[in-house]
Each structure stands twice: as C-alpha cells, then as structure tokens.
Amino acid sequence: MHWIDTHCHLDAAEFDADRTPVRNQARAQGVGCCVIPAVQVANFDAVRELAHAHHDAYALGIHPLYTPHAALKDVEHLDLALQAHHADTRLVAVGEVGLDGFVPTLNTASAWATQEHFYRAQLRLAQKHQLPVILHVRRSADRLLKGLRDIRVQGGIAHAFNGSLQQAQAFLALGFKLGFGGALTFERALQLRRLATELPLSAIVLETDAPDIAPQWLYATAKQRSAGQAQGRNSPGELPRIAQVLADLRGISLAELAQASRDNAVAALPRLQLNL
Prior knowledge:
Layout: E1 3-5, H1 19-28, E2 31-37, H2 44-53, E3 57-60, H3 73-84, E4 91-100, H4 109-129, E5 133-138, H5 141-150, E6 156-159, H6 165-173, E7 176-180, H7 190-198, E8 204-206, H8 222-226, H9 239-250, H10 254-268
Parallel strand pairs: 1-2, 2-3, 3-4, 4-5, 5-6, 6-7, 7-8
Helix pairs in contact: 3-4, 9-10
C-alpha cells in the first residue's frame, strides 16, 4: 500500500539526529510521500531541500504561532519565494498558515489582529499564485472560514481538524479536505472519532504532524512524564498504524482507506500527482 503523509515537519529539530533513517523507515512501511510545510521564512530553504532530497513535497508559509515574531516584509519574502519556485513541482501549497485560538498569548486583541493580517495576506498570495493552502485550525474554524469566503482560494487541507460536523461541511463546500492523524487514536476522543466516521470517505486525508500529535501508543501522561517517562516522538512511519485505527472505526479495509486517502490528497493538492 502507498500512503501520503499530508503534514509532516521533517525539518524539526527533533529529527536532527536521525532524519534520514526516520524517512527511510517510513518509506519501507509504505509512506511514499510526505508533505513538509514551512512555518516561517527562516525554514523555507530547509523544507524545499528536504523535499528534494527525500523525493517528497513541500509548502511555503508563515504559521500563526510564528506571527508574533514575523516581520511585515516576510509576506513579501513569501511572495518572492512562491514566484521563484513556482515551476518546482514539489511545491504543492501555501502553508502552514491559519489562526490559533488556543495559545493564550495569541488571544489578545493585538495578537489576533496580527494573526489575521498574516492569514489574509497569505490567502491572497495563494490566490495570486494559484496554489491550495494548508490550514492550521485550532479553535479558529469559524474565523478561518470567514477569511476563505472573503478570499477564495483553490481549496487545500484543514490540518488536524477537530471542529464540528457543520464546520467540516463548510470547509468541504469550499473545496477543502480534512486532515486526521494521531488524535483519533485516543479512545476518549469520542467527538473526533464520531466525526471521522460520519464524514464521507472522500473528505479525509491522513497526516502525522510529526514530531507532534503523537498517537496513543506513544503518548506519555503528565503523571508518567513526572515519573521520568519520555514523551514519544511521532514520525511519518506511524501513519499506517494510525490509518488502521481509522479503517477499523469506519469498518473498511486498510487497502480501501489507502487508495481513498491518496486520491483525496491529490484532489486537495493537485501537484502531488507529479511526485508519486
């Protein structure tokens, strides 16, 4: 089976010691392509070089968590980078962009204004360069949807989606697919699991968000961490096991999910087809 990890931060420092073995292991497990999204201007070159080195794909953008330290000229830098690499078939989206309503320091009036500025500016760049977007959605679905209705883009992926069915349907109506990963492996994630089974299969793409959002088998509770147990590092090689959980929840075969999630990823990020 061939899997696409639609969201993997392979450039993260957590992989500095063993990045190539991690990627090779994932490929041996059937993860043929990873999409590596940038989070700030400083790592644009890193994600592009990694995508080429490992025959993967990448996206360029400014993550909402990095907006407090971003300069206004960074939007111009992104514009120039998207133009410079537009012919690069491994460049598949503008991302990771969006809004974060979870982190307290980002929820002041001024911080929200900054987030909104970068979000909308990057939607306009996606529109200009005719690329889909990879969205960071954390307690921000309705605000993100408003931006998408105001500035129409060529769809994309709502990463780590954990909203309501109504919000999910709104993203789907705007041409987006919804990313599911390690969070749905937790038995207590009842709402998320219900959503992952109620949505049409055509709505779903798979992701790890490695090294973050570890699945249940890698997660250490606060009590375990205080006792000295390390938090498990997520990696793209976990994707087939995460997929098995979803296949079991939906009552379908792993092969059916692999084919559907791959088709959905290509529908969301059409340039992926050129990298498979």
